[in-house]
Amino acid sequence: MTDSTGPRVRTATAKRQRLMEAAARVVHQQGAERTTIADIARAADVPVGNVYYYYKTKDELVAAALGEHARQLGMLTGGLDLLADPRERLKGLVKAWVSQRDVAARYGCPTGTLAVELDKRAEGGLDAEAGRVIRLLLDWTERQFRELGLPDPDGLALTLVGAYQGMSLLANALRDPAVMTRQGDRLIGWLDSLPEGDRTPAAG
Hints:
By secondary structure, this protein is mainly alpha-helical. Helices cover 75% and strands 0% of the residues. The chain contains ten helices and no strands.
């Protein structure tokens, strides 16, 4: 017996994904407060009335944007995990940041700028969701430093991710993509300068 719901389910899934991707893009460009459901519907090429089938409020769409940022981060780090050397993974992360220099110069870091905006709201809502996405990046970065056998891997992760947030903010404030390039080169030089630690494999 043919499952007649299959095509409908696939269409609905594709439409939801388009809305998530559009929400991430538009909220990054305009900010959460200035963005409307109609803006996201237009960017996703979905009728406004259909949006409410998937997301009842704008806050749900902002949460979907954060979910899309997490998904994209997972795809990036998943690809980097294929590299054998954790130092090369970290350098690959920096190169990925620099590759987005034009976007960063125009709009800033997608998650960082949104986290700052949402922090002005009451605690425990979307601000916490933004923090969780940044925590995913910190945790992945910390694992790389830990695998390198370096002391204080969590501190090193904060240094690297903090440097990214700073160079994104400065590139955006100055509207200068070259800030990302110059600072990215410095970060790669810093990573190359770190000593070899004890790379004893972790148990399990």
